Amino acid sequence: MFSILTFPNPILFQKAIDVEHIYSVTPLLNEMKTFVENSPHVLGISLPQVGVSKRAFVARFTTGTEILINPNFYILDPTPNSLPSGEGCISLPGIIGIVPRYLIIRISYLSIFGERIFREMGGMDSIIFQHEFDHLEGILFTSKTLQAF
């Protein structure tokens, strides 16, 4: 079982490197996927949050829980907005904040099988993706928070 890093662990502030060999992180990513699927209040977790500074995360989208490796995204609607419910993070327990996020994005990533996936997403899925993507960039949501409570 993995441990979840919490603030102020320095790994959370490092820009992660690309995953070169998917098989090297497959067991851990599958374990993380099971964790997200069995944790009702967890919508995602990234490799940096479990101490591995590589570019992959697991996210629970409206279509199901997915593993995304070496993801990228492109902004389709340049107006940042946020959902009124705000954001929280398992690496920052007890903190919630309102964060501006792009609501419509186009994403690309590798699946666990090495297949390149392209798709558009919006709403809550877009927000979850951007939150987890920020972890790969070494950014915690508190650095983008408009209001914390």
UniProtKB/TrEMBL annotation:
<dbReference type="GO" id="GO:0006412">
    <property type="term" value="P:translation"/>
</dbReference>
<comment type="similarity">
    <text>Belongs to the polypeptide deformylase family.</text>
</comment>
<protein>
    <recommendedName>
        <fullName>Peptide deformylase</fullName>
        <ecNumber>3.5.1.88</ecNumber>
    </recommendedName>
</protein>
<feature type="binding site">
    <location>
        <position position="131"/>
    </location>
    <ligand>
        <name>Fe cation</name>
    </ligand>
</feature>
<keyword id="KW-0648">Protein biosynthesis</keyword>
<keyword id="KW-0378">Hydrolase</keyword>
<feature type="active site">
    <location>
        <position position="132"/>
    </location>
</feature>
<dbReference type="InterPro" id="IPR023635">
    <property type="entry name" value="Peptide_deformylase"/>
</dbReference>
<feature type="binding site">
    <location>
        <position position="135"/>
    </location>
    <ligand>
        <name>Fe cation</name>
    </ligand>
</feature>
<dbReference type="GO" id="GO:0042586">
    <property type="term" value="F:peptide deformylase activity"/>
</dbReference>
<dbReference type="Pfam" id="PF01327">
    <property type="entry name" value="Pep_deformylase"/>
</dbReference>
<dbReference type="InterPro" id="IPR036821">
    <property type="entry name" value="Peptide_deformylase_sf"/>
</dbReference>
<keyword id="KW-0408">Iron</keyword>
<keyword id="KW-0479">Metal-binding</keyword>
<dbReference type="GO" id="GO:0046872">
    <property type="term" value="F:metal ion binding"/>
</dbReference>
<feature type="binding site">
    <location>
        <position position="89"/>
    </location>
    <ligand>
        <name>Fe cation</name>
    </ligand>
</feature>
<comment type="function">
    <text>Removes the formyl group from the N-terminal Met of newly synthesized proteins. Requires at least a dipeptide for an efficient rate of reaction. N-terminal L-methionine is a prerequisite for activity but the enzyme has broad specificity at other positions.</text>
</comment>
